[in-house]
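Q: How would the structure tokens look for this protein?
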Amino acid sequence: MFFLMRVLNSLWHCVSLTLVLAWVVVNLWSSPASAENEPEPFSITIHGHERTHTEYIEKLVRDCLSGAAYPQQPGYLDTYMRQCLINSKLFEKIKIQFSAKTIDVEVQERWTLIPIPYLQVNTGNSRQIGLIIIETNFRGNGKILAGGASLSNVGASYFGYYQDPAINYSNWRGDILADHVNQALRLYRQRNIVDSFMESTNGLLAGGGYKMSDLIISSHLGTRQRKFTSINNFEPPKNQRFGYLNMLAEYSNKDFHFYGNHGVSLKINATKQLVRNDQVPTAANADFAFSFERIVIKHALQVQVVAGKLNGGAREDAYRLGGAKGFRGIERVGLWADRYQVIALDYQIPVESFPAGTVTVGPFNDYGIVHTAGPNGYATQYDSFGVATYFFLTAIALPGIGIEVGINRQFQGPFANLTIGLSI
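A: Here is the predicted structure in token form.
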């Protein structure tokens, strides 16, 4: 953990990682490919599709061809192309036939309009129910359109989201998110509430980026309005409005296998408030999430490392953690932090498979170091461990049902979580 604790000594470490990663990949991308590795030009024939546009499937095929490392190696290209197209999550089955300069691709499409109910209850105070409706192939071009609502014992939230991952069939992408959240926020020290206020907030975020092989670099501009009221005589923050800039680098080299994703991913995020109207210094934060998943004989080892740091701002700008992987046994959004380092380990063993998905069971362990700023702030370490069982849905490669039972001595003590569907 010593290395992990030093990763975020300052905000600029994460920003530097973003810039270095972008510089390396851009330079590698722009360097000329060797003649022996450059794939031969192919004409592409697509059939079997009903909802997806031919032009978009052709783009996916050409993107896969450009990412092939050893296109001349016998048998490699066929296996690589199948896996690459399956990773798009748009197709159930792929058949590919190669001739001298022709690729014939037959696809069987997945159903991509998915209503996802959501329920979360635990032995703490979290009670939440909601519904997300997501279309991952909107207008047959792989565009994502989603909306949802959530009701809980502490408030309600609503959101709408649109993403075009290939504007005009190019590598440029754009997205927009609008949301409203009204919730009671409570800061826990062990099982005691040491700070609390009600927040009602509206936000709008829009931007775009560019995809280079397995790397996406993007930037967004956003605005948020927040109103606060008192709970239990705690002093609330002042109402405020601010605009901000967000920079994001996402690297993912994962293949979908059985019920999970096999490979690594890294997301580096930096956000800076540009203007703010409540006389509080503008906030800036940076964080990263690294994920490693290895599937061997259908067993899955999952390692997730996350960390973040906040500079400036006030207590309402803190990271709001809890209730998710890495923070199991902590109330949802019940841990506020100006810096944190967390590692989560999961080992999943499949015990039964069905056409709709796979049931797994296995141990988990979360370990975190968290610092909370302000007059009620404190530094703490926690260790959460237990056993979990999940039903992974084949269609979306995420848990449809999850039951987690464990112990987090620093917060809830013995705990149990039941989740059905996905979190908003």
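Confidence is low (pLDDT under 50) at residues 1-39.

The chain is about 10% helix and 60% strand.

Upvote if useful.
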